Amino acid sequence: MAGLDKRVGSYEEALAGLTDGMTVLAGGFGLCGIPENLIAEIRRRGVRDLTVVSNNCGVDGFGLGVLLEDRQIRKMIASYVGENALFEQQLLSGELEVELTPQGTLAEKLRAGGAGIPAFYTATGYGTPVADGKEVREFKGRKYILEEAITGDFAIVKGWKADHFGNVVYRHTAQNFNPLVAAAGRITVVEVEEIVEPGELEPSQIHTPGIYVDRIIQGSFEKRIEKRTLRS
Predict the structure, then answer these.
(1) 81, 90 contact by CB (below 8 A)
(2) Do the bridges between strand 161-163 and strand 194-196 make them parallel or antiparallel, or are there none, so unpaired?
(3) By C-alpha distance, which of 215, 98, 86, 105 is closest to 157?
(4) Mean pLDDT computed over every residue of the chain
(5) Does residue 232 form part of some domain?
(6) φ and ψ at 230, to 5 degrees?
(7) Looking at residue 2, what is its pLDDT?
């Protein structure tokens, strides 16, 4: 990796500098558009006491769920955790600290973090446990709670295509949380299915500009189906 060329040659190099106790932002929604190889590298490195921010925590045995198996996650900030039995077990036993956040609020907390906005007011969660301990203000007769933005030491992202400069395109619904996460990381690492030459991507189609991206790596992906339903 040199100058504007963001490419790295190995997953070990892609996550160089990741250490115990850091905050990791992970893109994806369910198993759609998850950075599965970067997650596997986190597991291989054996870093611990991580705070992980993601819409959900994968499933048992795949995605972020593999980090629960080795007790590498200390705190999880997420919106939905219903597909992971190990997550439920660690939550109920007190082994895992969990901060459940409404999905739209989580998206805005990440967007605000990437935009340099420290906090914002939202009506979502007022009058529920979500609002406990948070500042409340009234605007035009409606109550709002103050939510702080989220940033991370590392952001791990799954894209479809990228060029050498780190400009990224996501495919269909795999866009989900990935662009928000990409902008909110101090070090943003993107794994993609294809790396193309600069100039091959249509500028109007780029979702994450390379200014947000520090490292790009090309990988191969399982793209597992989260829940398969068949008609008899």
Answers:
(1) no
(2) parallel
(3) 215
(4) 95
(5) no
(6) -120, 140
(7) 54
